[in-house]
TrEMBL record:
Lineage, uppermost ranks: Eukaryota, Viridiplantae, Streptophyta, Embryophyta, Tracheophyta
Single biological process term from Gene Ontology: negative regulation of cytokinin-activated signaling pathway
Protein species of origin: Oryza sativa subsp. indica
Protein name stated in the entry: Uncharacterized protein
InterPro entries in the cross-refs: Kelch-typ_b-propeller (IPR015915), Kelch_1 (IPR006652), KMD1-4 (IPR044595)
Domain of life of the native organism: Eukaryota
Length: 192
């Protein structure tokens, strides 16, 4: 596994050293291109594939408990086999709630690391002009942000999800300043 796939943006050797120091080199299953998330105080690794499988994503997940320095399997079928997990997202304030894009919809899941399997439930269809090459992030106040376009290489649009009790979820388009426009490879939240 490429260690910088779990910590994008760092040189391979720096990411490798960071992960080895906290036990991530003991990840039970080989996973290229997984998605790493902090969920409910644990580090969750979703999807990916063994290097020889080259792009045939598996739907399993494992989590690392820093309190015990151990890895545990979550469940098979955490995401659909064949689904790239790059749109999986969570926020520390969201507890065990996660989001991802599936078939043009934002879906959510509670109980990400519980022993009983949780189901993904639809939240809202993603606007047509943000469905391609989309990136998803959850910001501290719990709002979901989707950045994407209507076609590969198209202009990127930014939307935030509005959820109000008793009303269907809806999207609000957010302006992107010109200096922050262009193609988005990935999105994450970093609180310092």
């Amino acid at each position: 596994m490429g260690y910088n796939e779990l910590i994008p943006g760092l040189p391979e050797e720096v990411a490798r050293e960071c992960l080895i120091r906290v036990g991530f080199d003991q990840l039970p299953a080989e996973r290229d291109e997984p998605r790493g998330l902090c969920v409910d105080g644990k580090f969750l690794v979703v999807g990916g594939y063994p290097t020889p499988a080259q792009g045939r994503f598996v739907g399993s997940a494992e989590w690392f408990d820093p309190a015990t320095s151990t890895w545990s399997a979550v469940q098979e079928g955490f995401v659909d086999d064949g689904a790239c997990p790059r749109t999986c997202s969570s926020a520390p304030e969201a507890g065990d709630r996660m989001y991802m894009l599936r078939d043009g919809h934002l879906v959510a899941r509670h109980g990400a690391i519980s022993s009983s399997p949780a189901a993904w439930r639809p939240v809202a269809p993603v606007p047509e002009d943000a469905r391609t090459a989309a990136a998803v992030s959850v910001i501290p106040d719990g709002r979901v942000v989707v950045i994407g376009s209507d076609c590969h290489g198209g202009d990127q649009t930014v939307y935030t999800l509005r959820e109000e009790a008793g009303k269907p979820a809806s999207w609000a388009r957010a302006p992107a300043p010109p200096e922050f426009s262009g193609h988005v490879q990935a999105a994450c939240l970093l609180e310092i």
